[in-house]
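Troubleshooting: if your tokenizer reports a length mismatch, compare your output against this known-good record of 77 residues.
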Amino acid sequence: MTFVLRADSIGKACSGRRILTAATLHANAAEHGFLVGRNGCGTSTLLRVAAGVLAADNGVVTFKGTASARPRWDALS
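Known-good structure output:
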């Protein structure tokens, strides 16, 4: 299956604390989905990395077939 948005093996640390180690997110156009997790487990961080607000320490975000370590907001259209 081809996904519109993929965030693969995303890792992120803040102030020396590992927030994400190998998170993955796949999304299709015109579909509703859920990202569920406990408070403080990195769900918002994963969404911010996928949207290009934060740069990941490792991993890659692919949007419409174009891979980027940190996508730009204007490219997500």
